[in-house]
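step=encode ok
step=design start
structure_in=
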């Protein structure tokens, strides 16, 4: 088990405010799975336009939060220390299902599991839940390769 707080998360991911969507890693088993949280605040910049009277977290940002969690799992699987020589990208999302809206005050629990790795392509099973209820599920394909 390996918890990560925001300072360490920022060492592994290039994302910064307002686009860093993982607040804390609760557990990481390199090569297997990662569980993280995203605290959804009413102060998120996207709520001013989505939607002002009924704020709802955009589904694409839930997918992005899950993708960032896969990045953390991928990097921790490859090394204990971050590398500036690697480029990690989301290259496919399959079977996406949105089952419930995410609103201010929710805490997203992000769970990602590594299913397969072949050369540069990694396949993950991903779920985001709130209070034990799945809000989004998907399979993601990511690529990790040396920067050119």
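sequence_out=
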């Amino acid at each position: 088990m390996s918890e990560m707080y925001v300072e360490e998360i920022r060492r592994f991911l290039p994302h910064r405010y307002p686009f860093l969507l993982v607040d804390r890693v609760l557990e990481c088993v390199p090569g297997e799975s990662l569980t993280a949280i995203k605290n959804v605040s009413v102060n998120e910049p996207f709520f001013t336009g989505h939607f002002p009277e009924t704020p709802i977290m955009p589904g694409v940002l839930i997918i992005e939060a899950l993708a960032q969690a896969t990045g953390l799992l991928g990097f921790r699987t490859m090394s204990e220390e971050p590398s500036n020589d690697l480029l990690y990208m989301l290259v496919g999302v399959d079977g996406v299902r949105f089952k419930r809206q995410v609103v201010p005050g929710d805490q997203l629990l992000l769970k990602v599991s590594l299913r397969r790795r072949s050369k540069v392509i990694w396949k993950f099973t991903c779920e985001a839940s709130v209070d034990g209820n799945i809000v989004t599920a998907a399979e993601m394909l990511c690529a990790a390769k040396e920067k050119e």
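step=design ok
step=annotate ok -> Residues 59-78 form the longest helix (20 residues).
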